[in-house]
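Changelog-adjacent note: as of this version, every example in the card shows the full chain rather than a window. The one below runs 267 residues end to end.
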Amino acid sequence: MKHIMMTVGALGAMLVANGCIATHKYVAKTVAPVESRVSATESKNAEQDKQLADHTKELADQKKEIDDVGTDLSRTKERLSDVDSKATAAGQSAQQANQAAQQANQAASNAQRSADQAAQGVDRVEKTMVAMNKWNLSSSTTVLFPVGQSKLSKEAKAQLDDFASKAASYQRYMIEVQGFTDKTGPASFNDALSQARAESVARYLANEHMIPVRSISTLGSGYAMPVADDKTRDGRKQNRRVEIRLYIPEAGAGGQASAGVGGGIGQ
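Full-length structure tokens:
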């Protein structure tokens, strides 16, 4: 019995051992593919982790580049803003300089115009002064005298009145009074008589018409420049004369005085 029991036990042990071996083989056969897939999955995950890490680094590098570009853009914007400010300031300075140049040019033009006007004024004054020293004969008259006399007749005074009214029309004038005689008598007597006749005319103009003495010049020329044949009675009458001539400056020839007689500068 004991032997049987031992045999049965041995068989049981053998069966258990065979069952375990079979189970182990089954488990090994079943687990091996799983482990293989797990290993493949882990390898794949590791590769993906590496790719993810690489991609993350690439993104970080790109972000840094973008940040650097942003920084450069910001600096560039600041520089452009500074350049724009400087350009604006330069433009304002240029505008102010242009305005100053225009004002200076206007001032120069005004100064040149003033200089031209002054030069024209000086030229006009010079021409006026030259013209004022050139005298034009405005009018003349001749009064006659009896033989051997220097007294003015009524007719001679009337002539002188008319002559003085013409002189009163001008502000500046000069009157020449020149006396003459016929050939009768000595030359010295005739010279004195002709001078007396000229002075008689000048005295009448100054006393009766207030003509300034400075504006009258007198000369007794005796028997000089006869105007008629002294051999005839009528010729001698024409030679016993005083010629009165009114001269006015060339500058005043075109205009007359507004009032009164004077010796002033003509207009």
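Structural remarks: The radius of gyration is 70 Å.
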